[in-house]
Specification:
Layout (H helix, E strand, L loop, with lengths): L1 H19 L5 H11 L3 H13 L7 E2 H10 L1 H8 L8 E15 L3 E6 L7 E5 L7 H4 L12 H26 L5 E11 L9 E9 L4
Length: 211
């Protein structure tokens, strides 16, 4: 009798296990995984063409931004900056016009036009990294992303576009004395505000006639 119960119990276990396990073809599994993979280059390109470039007209003139930050930094950060996280780092979309003062190994120094204080800013030409260009427009919703890796990969791909498309023609023609117009993103710290060493990650640069 015990033997019969044992056989029945084993049979039930086998039957349940059989219906609990199923197999899929490897190609089907790969197809599902591939469909779920985030395409950071495609997302970055769409952001660049559909959200970033159309919003360049909203960039604030950088000398005006500096003046506003000196007079009322809290209000200026609230009105003109964006950030997708909590913290002191904020990002601005800016534009400006000035004369190239020096072409350096990693950047270009520009003397801003119409600034009585003879203010200079830096256009980064070598080390393009961080989230400034991704976040400066405020046009990306972090809830679109399933994980932080995908989100950070978007920044990397946007910065790659700058390195590969924006900077090569500029670096090839840039030299001291030439007048340029630029639009780009900057990062500023609310608690440790430094307006003497502003670095712009360029999105668009136009070389004008020499002065």
């Amino acid at each position: 009798m015990k033997a019969v119960k044992y056989i029945i119990t084993v049979g039930v276990i086998i039957l349940v296990a059989y219906h609990s396990v199923y197999f899929k073809k490897l190609d089907e599994v790969k197809a599902v995984l591939s469909a779920k993979e985030f395409n950071a280059p495609a997302y970055a390109q769409k952001y660049w063409s559909d959200k970033l470039i159309p919003n360049l007209g909203k960039a604030i003139e950088i000398t005006r931004l500096s003046a506003l930050l000196l007079s009322d930094p809290t209000k200026t950060f609230d009105n003109y900056s964006h950030a997708l996280g909590i913290g002191n780092l904020r990002y601005f979309l800016v534009r400006g016009r000035g004369q190239i003062e020096s072409v350096n190994e990693d950047d270009v120094t520009v003397l801003m036009e119409g600034d009585s204080s003879k203010r200079t800013i830096i256009i980064a030409t070598e080390y393009i990294f961080g989230n400034a260009v991704r976040d400066a427009t405020g046009a990306i919703n972090i809830n679109e992303f399933e994980n932080t890796m995908d989100f950070n990969n978007v920044s990397a791909e946007i910065n790659k576009i700058i390195r590969e498309r924006v900077l090569p023609p500029f670096k090839k023609q840039a030299h001291k004395g030439i007048l340029i117009e630029f639009t780009g993103a900057i990062e500023l710290n609310k608690e440790h505000l430094d307006l003497q060493n502003i670095e712009v990650l360029p999105v668009e640069i136009k070389l004008m006639n020499e002065r």
